[in-house]
UniProtKB/TrEMBL annotation:
Domain of life per record: Bacteria
One Pfam family recorded for the sequence: Heme_oxygenase
Xref: SUPFAM superfamilies: Heme oxygenase-like (SSF48613)
Full protein name: Heme oxygenase
InterPro entries, per database record: Haem_Oase, Haem_Oase-like, Haem_Oase-like_multi-hlx
GO biological process, one term: response to oxidative stress
Gene Ontology MF annotations: heme binding; heme oxygenase (decyclizing) activity; metal ion binding
Gene3D superfamilies named among the record's database cross-references: Heme oxygenase-like (1.20.910.10)
Positions of heme b binding: R17, H24, Y132, R180
Organism from which the protein derives: Saccharopolyspora antimicrobica
Keywords: Heme, Iron, Metal-binding
Length: 223
């Protein structure tokens, strides 16, 4: 892929959103997500999700460091988005100082990690696909989920919600507009755009399987 194979395309971000809407809907249809958005989860349930996110972000942010100087992927890398320190703080809050011994990736998360390791360090478009899927989802839904969980857990001090608090991004909509502009102005070839759309769909599928596993673990506590 080169950035000069065709004229710059101005609607790739819109295309990504439109062509992955079904995958996004399947993720949101998982019982775990429905319970989360309905304010039915407790601290233990929420911590299970954070633990799986921790392993995903560990790989993704290692890939970000690797891709930081890449001409295509590098502009998407932003320290303002980093979630790993926040996840570590939250996991210590929920599990205590020995939290690293208490969390492990699920089977679905292991598959997700394997895919990111396979492509995110060598294929700039693949890195962007997973970066887009993970960060924009958490930036978009973070504030709403934080408010819901704060009410359901009766917490107003923000403790345990560092992951959902993007302190370095005070204006989420403006940041997302700038991110979408990057997507629209890279100048990928038509074939590369197709590959990226397919990889975003695959990233959503991995996330949906992670959520499905969390849904299964949640069932006994909701009986």
């Amino acid at each position: 892929m080169t950035t000069t194979e065709r004229p710059v395309r101005r609607d790739f971000a819109q295309r990504l959103r439109a062509e992955t809407r079904a995958e996004h809907g399947r993720a949101h249809a998982q019982p775990y997500v429905r319970a989360l958005l309905a304010g039915q989860l407790g601290a233990e349930d929420f911590a299970m999700l954070l633990a799986q996110h921790y392993f995903a972000y560990a790989v993704l942010e290692a890939a970000a460091e690797h891709m930081r100087s890449d001409l295509v992927a590098g502009p998407f890398v932003s320290d303002r988005l980093r979630r790993l320190p926040a996840l570590e703080a939250d996991l210590q809050h929920y599990f205590g100082r020995g939290w690293r011994r208490k969390v492990a990736p699920s089977a679905a998360t292991e598959e997700y990690l394997a895919r990111m390791r396979e492509i995110c360090f060598d294929w700039p478009g693949g890195f962007v696909a997973h970066h887009y899927t993970r960060y924009l989802a958490d930036l978009s839904g973070g504030q709403a989920i934080r408010a819901i969980m704060g009410r359901s857990m009766d917490r107003s001090d923000g403790a345990g919600f560092a992951f959902l608090t993007f302190e370095q991004i005070p204006n989420g909509p403006r940041f997302k507009d700038a991110y979408r502009t990057l997507l629209d102005t890279v100048g990928w070839s038509a074939a590369e755009e197709d590959r990226i759309v397919a990889e975003v769909k695959r990233a959503y599928a991995h996330n949906t399987r992670v959520l499905a596993e969390l849904s299964y673990l949640l069932i006994p506590r909701q009986r």
